Each structure stands twice: as C-alpha cells, then as structure tokens.
TrEMBL record, chain A:
Assigned keywords, A-Z: Oxidoreductase, Pyruvate
GO molecular function: oxidoreductase activity, acting on the aldehyde or oxo group of donors, iron-sulfur protein as acceptor
Pfam families: POR (PF01558)
Ranges where the Pyruvate/ketoisovalerate oxidoreductase catalytic domain occurs: 10-175
Name this protein carries in UniProt: Pyruvate ferredoxin oxidoreductase
UniProtKB/TrEMBL annotation, chain B:
Record-linked PANTHER family: PYRUVATE-FLAVODOXIN OXIDOREDUCTASE-RELATED (PTHR32154)
Regions that span the bilayer: none
InterPro entries: PFOR_II, Pyruvate:ferred/Flavod_OxRd, Pyrv_Fd/Flavodoxin_OxRdtase_N, THDP-binding, Transketo_C/PFOR_II
Matching Pfam families: PFOR_II, POR_N
Limits of the Pyruvate flavodoxin/ferredoxin oxidoreductase pyrimidine binding domain: 17-232
Organism per entry: Candidatus Falkowbacteria bacterium RIFOXYA2_FULL_38_12
Entry keywords, A to Z: Oxidoreductase
Domain of life per record: Bacteria
Example of a GO MF term: oxidoreductase activity
GO biological process terms, semicolon-separated: response to oxidative stress
Domain Pyruvate:ferredoxin oxidoreductase core: 266-369
Protein's name according to its UniProt entry: Pyruvate ferredoxin oxidoreductase
Length: 177, 386
C-alpha cells in the first residue's frame, strides 16, 4: 500500500488534490481512498489530506503517519516541523517552489526531493495562484504512480469543461517539466 | 455501477434510490453532505423540508411517516440529542422512519469529530440501531433498513462514522434502481396504523397504567423479533445483489454479528463501525492466523445479539476478548463492554477487558491495536487508550 500526505493551506485545494489522486488511481484500476485531516476549515490555515493506493481493498481508517510520498503545496510550510513528521528513508517529497533545493531551509537530508514552480505555472496559464492541479501534474510526472490520462479524466469529471481544460493545460506543463 | 465518491454522497444517492416521499433535515453543523446532496436533488419524487432545528426535522418525519409514506432524515451529535424526545415518540408510534446517524462526539467541550457517544446515548429509545463498517456497507444497510423498518413497524438508525466514513472518498458499487425496486417495493402501511381521512384513527393516545405496560412489553418483544427479520433481510439482500465475502476467514456473518479469524483464537477484538477496518488491516488474514487473532463485528446494537455472541463464544472458543468502545457511560464503563459482560454473565469462561478509544476523533492507529495484543495480559479490566 502506498500512502501519500499532502500539506497545504486552506484555500489551496489540498483536500481536492488528495481526492483527485485517489480518483485517478481508481481509474487506473487500483483500490484507493482519500480523506482530509478533519480540521476546522479556515483560509490560510495549515491543512493536511491523505491518499492511499493499493492493489488490495483498503480497510485502514487511520491518518497517515509515515508517508511514502509527501506533497508540499506551500513553501512556507517547510518551516513547520510537523510537515516532515514520520518521513522514512524512502519517502519522496515534492515541493512547490521556484527556489533551488540547496537554498531551502530545514529540509531532511538523504531523501529524494523534487521541486516544481507550481505557482509560476499557475499564474502563467490559469492567471491565478491555484496550484493543486499543477502539483498533481508534477507528482504524476515525477513518480509515475498515477497516469496522466486518469488524472485528466478525474479533473474533467470534477470541474466544468472550461475550467477543467485550463487546469489540464497547466497540469501537462508541470508533468513535462 | 461502481463509482468513486464521498461516503455522504454514496448515502444520499442510495436514499434517492429507495424512493422516500418526505425528507426533513436541519442543515447546520453538526450535519453532513448527505442532506446537502439530497436538498440539491432536482426532483418531484420527494418533498425536502428544511426544518428550523433537529427536533423539528424529527417531528416532520414523524408526521409524514404517520400519514403512511416512506421518510428519511439524518443528523449527528448534538442534533441527535436535540431529537431525543421525538425519537422515543417515533418508536412508540411504531413508525418505520429511517435515519442516518453520522456518529460524532457530543459537547461539552465542543468537538466535531468522530466517536459513537451520540447513538449510544439514545440506545433505549426503541429504535433498531445498525452499524456500517465501510461506505459500501453504509449504502447497503440503508436499503435493508427500509425493508426491516416497514416489516416490523419500528424505526431504524443506520450508524456511519462521521468523517472516517462520511467524508472519505472510496469506490462503491451503487445498487441498481430496478433491483432496489424489486427488493423494496412501494411502501404499503398496515391498515389502521396510519392517518387516513377515509379511515380515521388515533395514534399515540393516552394510555393508562393498565394499558401502557403491555404496549411497552409488546414493543420490546417486537425489537427482539426484529433479529430474525434483520437476519432474513441481510441474506435476501446478499443473494439478490450477489454480495461476496471479502475475508477468507469469515466464519459467521448473519446481519447481527460477523466474525473473521481462526478457531480457538488467543484474542478476539469486539467493536463496531469503521475501527474494525483498522483492526483487520493491522491484523490481516495471514497475521490473524499466525497470531491467533479474531475480530467480531457487532453490527446491531439494538436488538442486542446476546444469544448470537454466546453461540459465537461456545463455537469459536476465544481465550481473551478486548472490547473497543468509542463511547462511555460516564461513571460506569464502555457501553458495548457492559452489554457484552451482561450477555456473557455466568455463561462464558473468557477474560474480557475494555479499551476506551477514539473519543472526540482521537485517531486509532495500528500501533494502538498492536499494543493491546502484545500487552493484553498486563492490562487492567478497564482503561482509556490516550
């Protein structure tokens, strides 16, 4: 079973991102589950959401403590120790930042870390700093855990045609970056 | 049709397929997306009535059900407690209302998260109380709930863990409308048991001491009789919809209880709701065999499956039992624990201990479960797992 934890701030579509990954995995014919950390919803507050993907039915209803993948949607969350709790030697991390990894503070050592300038891509294509679908494109491209086709399908199901197509364009750019 | 969606949406879609005529709810916290989805239904199939409180919502479905139509409401936590007076009335009037309780903690202190304190607190109201372990079970139980309620003329509460199930996205099979219509034909209220201008009757009139007690006795007996109906309905549903067992070591599954694990287990967990999934995931098929661990799911709190539990103990012969309670009768013990001890009184030579877990959404981890298995012998009879 693969466990993914996504960190973001209220309003960044963190919970939607977890749901879209899980739905894409479902379209990839896997078992999957997505749920948020059940906090009080406020714009700007740190938010967590979880996705599990497996070849077997998923019965576990516990939060994710030792993620295989960590997606950090907002670089200001890097300063919060809690963001990195439970990471393992083989945890892979994806961070939204324009900066070089070496200039980022407080990153765990000897761990696979990838970055994507998701905010830049979102501003360029969507005209708004809505980064969740961009991050998903980068996630699919970097780790090949879910297929781009299934991600597109889940975005088309979720949003209106116009919004979905824009998001898919942004997602594809991040996928190929 | 298999769909990937949130638990609340799964329940809402299933309710629409059950064709209720009146739905009433109060839409503010504590509530789930279930009634939001139902309120958005663009349909003339049912009337959705926005109530000004949960007590009113319960009163509206009471009145609607008394006119002989299929009804539905959903609530949680404080909302359920506010309904309490009317819940007793619905049961006493023998109205087949179906309600979802998205289980959540109760105040004070304020807490919006999941535990089972709400439903446990109204267990004596005369409702049939059934628990879902997964979103699929939640969907299927609602369909069965109408069948059971209408057959025995008693209301049914389907309990679904708040957040852990209601807010979790997973794949479910949405049952086919035609099959549901076959399983659950149009509701035909029994003659002279509903308000009909052509055939006037009084429901819930004053009962003197001479008549009140026999009526209460009758209700109790019907709740006990409902065990048979729950079992039959479960079997009929599984046959019609070809429901398969997902656990290879499932030895008992009858609608009231379900046991997965080996014979002569060293330890059996007894619990209800979604925590069962966490236990079965921590101790999967192989680990259950290897460590001699079993899991008993109490699917029905009322009627309480006391004889079924005794039969399970004499057939499977567990040495130790850990009862996981996600509620507590303050000043006593966990509620499931005291029910099980009562059922076992004088009949089972088995060590039973009580673990209070998950109150107010306290996350229950695989490590918590392993810790109970490893340290069971040194644990006291009752403890909070903090």
């Amino acid at each position: 079973m693969i466990e993914i934890r996504i960190h973001g701030r209220g309003g960044q579509g963190t919970v939607t991102a977890a749901e879209l990954i899980a739905e894409a995995a479902f379209f990839d014919k896997k078992f999957s589950q997505a749920f948020p950390f059940f906090g009080v919803e406020r714009r700007g507050a740190p938010i967590e959401a979880y996705t599990r993907i497996s070849d077997q039915p998923i019965l576990l209803h516990s939060e994710i403590y030792e993620p295989d993948f960590l997606i950090i949607q907002d670089p200001t969350l890097l300063k919060i120790k809690n963001t990195f709790r439970g990471i393992k030697k083989n945890t892979s991390i994806l961070i939204n930042t324009e900066k070089d990894i070496s200039s980022l503070p407080l990153l765990p050592k000897n761990i696979q870390i990838k970055t994507v300038p998701a905010t830049q891509i979102a501003l360029k294509i969507l005209g708004k700093p809505i980064i969740n679908t961009v991050m998903l494109g980068a996630f699919a491209g970097a780790f090949k855990l879910i297929s781009l086709e299934s991600l597109k399908k889940s975005i088309l199901e979720r949003f209106s045609q116009e919004i979905a197509l824009k998001n898919i364009k942004a997602m594809e750019e991040a996928y190929n970056s | 049709m298999i769909k990937f969606q949130e638990g609340s949406e799964t329940i809402a879609e299933t309710i629409r397929l059950c064709r209720p005529k009146v739905i009433a709810a109060y839409p503010i916290t504590p509530q789930t997306h279930i009634v939001e989805s139902l309120a958005r239904s663009n349909t003339k199939d049912f009337e959705y009535i926005l109530a000004e409180s949960e007590m009113s919502a319960a009163s509206i479905v009471l009145g609607a059900s008394a006119t002989g139509v299929r009804t539905y409401t959903a609530t949680s936590s404080q909302g359920l407690l506010l309904m309490t007076e009317v819940l007793f009335d619905i049961a006493g009037l023998r109205l087949p209302v179906v309600m979802t309780c998205a289980n959540r903690a109760v105040s004070a202190p304020i807490n919006i998260w999941n535990d089972e304190q709400d439903i446990m607190t109204i267990r004596d109201a005369g409702w049939i109380i059934l628990f879902a372990e997964s979103n699929q079970q939640a969907a299927d139980l609602h369909i069965q709930a109408y069948k059971i309620a209408e057959k025995i003329s008693l209301p049914v509460a389907v309990c679904v863990d708040g957040f852990a199930l209601t807010h979790t996205f997973e794949a479910v099979e949405l049952r086919d409308q035609k099959m549901i219509d076959k399983f659950l034909p149009k509701y035909q209220p029994k003659k002279e048991s509903f308000l009909d201008p052509e055939n006037p009757v009084t429901l819930g009139g004053l009962c003197t001491p001479a008549t009140y007690m026999p009526i209460r006795k009758n209700m109790h007996q019907d709740l006990l009789t409902s065990k048979k109906i729950i079992k039959e309905t479960f079997l009929k549903f599984n046959n019609l919809f070809s429901v398969k067992k997902i656990f290879g070591d499932c030895k008992i599954s009858d609608g009231l209880i379900e046991y997965s694990g080996p014979n002569n287990p060293e330890l059996v967990f007894i619990a209800s709701g979604s925590v069962l999934g966490t236990i079965k995931s921590t101790y999967d098929y192989n680990l259950r065999q290897k460590n001699k661990i079993g899991v008993l799911n109490i699917k029905s709190l009322r009627p309480f499956p006391d004889k079924e539990i005794i039969n399970f103990i004499s057939k499977i012969k567990p040495k130790n039992i850990a009862v996981i309670d996600r509620s507590i009768s303050l000043g006593q013990t966990g509620i499931l624990f005291s029910e099980i001890k009562t059922a076992c009184y004088g009949k089972a030579g088995v060590k039973i201990k009580n673990f209070i877990m998950g109150l107010g959404g306290k996350n229950i981890t695989p490590k918590d479960i392993q810790n109970i298995v490893i340290n069971f012998k040194s644990k006291s009879e009752f403890q909070f797992v903090l």
